[in-house]
Amino acid sequence: MENKNQTILKPWGQEIILEKKRGYWIKKLMVRQGASLSLQSHQDRSEIWLVLAGRVAVTKGQTRRTLDEGEFIKIAKKEKHRLTGLKDSWILELAFGRVRQNDIIRFQDDYGRVK
């Protein structure tokens, strides 16, 4: 495992890497109310988001839905997705595949990170 329990500040909140191994990682995300992750996709990994606390809006492909505590959603490889905090929220993120941070393709971003 590398970087276990490392907290990384993000413009939308923070992420804590709980476990990272070959083929998967587990992160805990805190998304502030009103803040959004990038509209993005990943070439080499799929994800599952489980809402631990709070309420979020999820964009997945062309659909948008709300998730409350205890609800989850699966995101396929190469599928566009975005997470927005409707309340301050904690999310458990499970990623499977070739897990690396630099496979993010950003399409839209509130913080100027689209290349």
Structure report:
The strands form three sheets. Strands 1-2-3-10-5-8 form a six-stranded antiparallel β-sheet, with no helix packed on it. The model has no long low-confidence stretch (mean pLDDT 92). The N and C termini lie far apart (30 Å). It has 115 residues and is an all-beta fold. Strand 6 and strand 7 form a beta hairpin. The protein has strands at residues 6-10, 13-21, 24-31, 39-42, 45-53, 55-60, 63-68, 72-75, 81-85, 89-97, 104-108.
Supply database-style keywords.
single chain; 115 residues; mainly beta; Jelly Rolls; six-stranded antiparallel beta sheet; three-stranded antiparallel beta sheet
- What structural class should be given to the helix and strand makeup? mainly beta
Strand percentage: over 45%
Our count of helices gives: 0
What count of domains describes the coordinates? 1
Mean pLDDT rating = 92
The outline comes out as: globular
Largest sheet: 6 strands, antiparallel
The rounded Rg comes to 13 Å
Instruction: Briefly note the CATH topology name.
Output: Jelly Rolls
How would you name the CATH homologous superfamily? Jelly Rolls
Q: What's the CATH first level? A: Mainly Beta
- In the predicted model, the low-confidence regions spanning at least 5 consecutive residues are none
Q: Strand tally, please?
A: 11
Distance between the termini: 30 Å
The spatial strand order of the largest sheet comes to 1-2-3-10-5-8
In N-to-C order, the SSE pattern is EEEEEEEEEEE
Which helices and strands, and how do they pair?
Blueprint: E1 6-10, E2 13-21, E3 24-31, E4 39-42, E5 45-53, E6 55-60, E7 63-68, E8 72-75, E9 81-85, E10 89-97, E11 104-108
Antiparallel strand pairs: 1-2, 2-3, 3-10, 4-11, 5-8, 5-10, 6-7, 6-9
